[in-house]
Amino acid sequence: GQQLNQSPQSMFIQEGEDVSMNCTSSSIFNTWLWYKQEPGEGPVLLIALYKAGELTSNGRLTAQFGITRKDSFLNISASIPSDVGIYFCAGRRQGAQKLVFGQGTRLTINP
Amino acid sequence: NAGVTQTPKFQVLKTGQSMTLQCAQDMNHEYMSWYRQDPGMGLRLIHYSVGAGITDQGEVPNGYNVSRSTTEDFPLRLLSAAPSQTSVYFCASSRMAGRNEKLFFGSGTQLSVL
Q: Residues 6 or more apart from B85 whose CB is under 8 A from it?
């Protein structure tokens, strides 16, 4: 079953606000990935993380691999309308080939 | 490069009908997989393949068959469609099945089973 808990499930924010979301697991992961999905499209990779404590940015997006290796965080600064979509975390446990996904965070932005 | 291509984009089936969802990638990726996306459930792995001739079950394999006769293609077959299989299906691939490999997705197939 689902091994990742992603929160919040949805967010309604004003344009220009910062956004934070996170993903937690009961297992240790050695890879964390963050994806964005726009309507009618497949998820697109935003950021990949491979080391505990790693902090990686992609423009206004910043993601961190938690020190405990059981969580990851995604922040979006100064949100703009094109940030709207569903954000998914995904992780790979130690020794596993398969990725598991969180339930997604749906981001809605009021202009 | 086209990346990961899925067809059809939309499909409506009657209960009991069979069909095949097509997936092709032109990136010479060894690893290919099928996910289904349902509201509040995220993406759940149906089947995956680490190379031509090799397939394995994911989290929710029941009711689906796959085969991998070539590196490029990984079709998903529904032998007898059920309403519970109404979902959006995504094919995804990566260069290998290893730790550092990133997964690339197709644009999805929206399937309704009546």
A: B63, B78, B111, B113
What phi and psi values does residue B102 have, to the nearest 5 degrees? -95, 140
Instruction: Give the residue from A100, A76, A99 showing the smallest Cα distance to A87.
Output: A76
Q: Cis peptide leading into B8, omega within 30 of 0?
A: yes
pLDDT in tens, A14-46: 999 999 999 999 999 999 999 999 988 999 999
User: Do the strands B64-66 and B76-78 form a parallel or antiparallel pair, or are they unpaired?
Assistant: antiparallel
What tokens appear for B2 in the block? 């086209």
**Residues of B with Cβ-Cβ distance to A90 under 8 angstroms:** 43, 103
Which site among B25, B33, B50, B99 would you substitute to test the A interface, given the most A Cβ atoms closer than 10 Å to its Cβ? Answer: B99
**Cis before residue A8, ω within 30 degrees of 0?**
yes
For A48, the enclosing helix (H) or strand (E) is strand A44-49
Per-residue pLDDT 10s for chain A (111 aa) are 556 899 999 999 999 999 999 999 999 999 999 999 998 899 999 999 999 999 999 999 999 999 999 999 999 999 999 999 999 999 988 777 778 899 999 999 987
Q: Of how many residues is chain B composed?
A: 114
Pairing type for strands A105-110 and A10-14 reads: parallel
Q: CA B43 to CA B37: how far, in whole Å?
A: 5
Tell me how long chain A is.
111
